[in-house]
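Researcher: Re-running this chain for the archive, since the previous output was lost when a drive failed. Same request as before.
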Amino acid sequence: MIIRNYTKKDEQGWLRCRILSFLNTAYFDNVLQQKETYENAAIELVAEIDGQIVGLIDVEYEATPKTVCTQQDSIGGMIWHIAVHPDYQRQGIGEALLKAVLQQAKELHIEYFEAWTRDDPWVQMWYEKYEFEKSTSYYHVYLEGNEMKNLMNASVDQFYPVTAFAHYTGKDLEQFQHVKRKHECVCYVKVFNQ
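Model: Regenerated structure tokens:
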């Protein structure tokens, strides 16, 4: 396995790896057709085996606190994407990518990582294994058809919402008991030992 910087020629392999790795998670429908680009500097690494992209990690980092991250008053890096192709999972690729990006982050004087994920227990356990700590959370709520009754109304004549995606930052989940798809979106933070 080779861990190296992402290059533009890796885009299709990056997309395939990310899509396939997300299929068995709560982010299964978060499909990208192009790799994201970032407003700020970023560390973008891929893991490659026999010419195939089998893992990836993207960390956008800030020069001024709280311009990318939100949880600390120090220089942070946001893990936007971390993924391992399902055929290569449980072989230490995610750990190797994390170690490689941590090394580069420390050289750049980044002081912590922030990562947001949904309520997949195995994903949360992965972050906790590598000493990320839960910081805060809110909810992603997907509404379809009758689930929108009493929650959403259109103020435009002859306009009828059919589906909706919303953020809920409150604590009263009881009002969403009739909604099939809702996910806790959890922020994990890893402060580096300098």
